[in-house]
Design goal:
The chain has 5 helices and 8 strands; from the N terminus they run βαββββαβαβαβα. The protein has 212 residues and is α/β, with parallel strands linked by helices. A 6-stranded parallel sheet has the order 5-2-1-6-7-8. Strands 3-4 form a two-stranded antiparallel ribbon. The structure holds pyrazine-2-carboxylic acid and zinc ion. The site of pyrazine-2-carboxylic acid (VGL) has 8 residues, from helix 3.
């Protein structure tokens, strides 16, 4: 069983959004192309949604801090982000151009104001599960193909948790974009994922390998 996982393809991470990822919009057509193959290459298509209360501790505005500075949250180092993906706002919604019809289930994260949650599996303290890992195991899924936003945060931490949980993980290079607070962050994240055991492929390579 193989699942395609779309990480945080939400308005606030797209152009014009509160935490716009450079070229983030470019992941949408690639995600749509891959999710068309549900029932063939992929048995399941899942999505994660960053979904913060407006008092979330990762927001610079709630800490009297400068956006992009470093602070602490839940005893961990924490980037101070602009307010983003606030529950009930347009920015938290999935991109209008993202095809949600193939999506079987959505896993929300980042709801606890006292800790951030980059990974789609666990919060940053690895304390609370979103239910994604349990859901996948229960469905008998062993292989994961992961894409979305952002390469150097939520995608990377989702891939690393998935590997730790024992899944075979493929990261889709052309279907992900990085925040790049430092210009090399995206490339470093890809190296970290590769070193941890992820396959790094393009969407074309995935389609070709599956002969479709
Ligand atoms: C993300 C920063 C803060 C992400 C979420 O989806 O990569 N990055 N919240
Ligand atoms: Zn967030």
């Amino acid at each position: 069983m193989r699942a395609l996982i779309l990480i945080d393809v939400q308005n606030d991470f797209l152009s014009g959004g509160a935490l716009a990822v450079p070229k983030g919009d470019e992941v949408i057509p690639v995600a749509n192309e891959l999710s068309k193959h549900k029932g063939k290459i992929f048995d399941l298509v899942l999505a994660t949604q960053d979904y913060h209360p407006k008092n979330h501790g990762s927001f610079a505005s709630n800490n009297g801090a400068a956006v992009g500075s470093m602070g602490k949250l839940g005893g961990l180092d924490q980037v101070m982000w602009p307010d983003h993906c606030v529950q009930g706002t347009k920015g938290a919604e999935f991109a209008a151009a993202l095809d949600m019809k193939p999506v079987d289930q959505i896993f929300k994260k980042g709801m606890d104001p006292a800790i951030d949650s980059y990974s789609g599996f666990y919060d940053n303290g690895q304390k609370k599960s979103t239910g994604l890992g349990e859901f996948l195991k229960q469905k008998g899924v062993r292989d994961l193909v992961i894409l979305g936003l952002a390469t150097d945060y939520c995608v990377k931490f989702s891939v690393l948790d998935a590997l730790r949980l024992g899944f075979d993980v493929t990261f889709v290079k052309d279907a992900s974009r990085a925040v790049n607070l430092k210009p090399t962050d995206g490339d470093t994240a890809i190296e970290d994922m590769r070193k941890a055991g992820a396959h790094v492929l393009t969407s074309a390579e995935i389609l070709k390998k599956s002969n479709r």
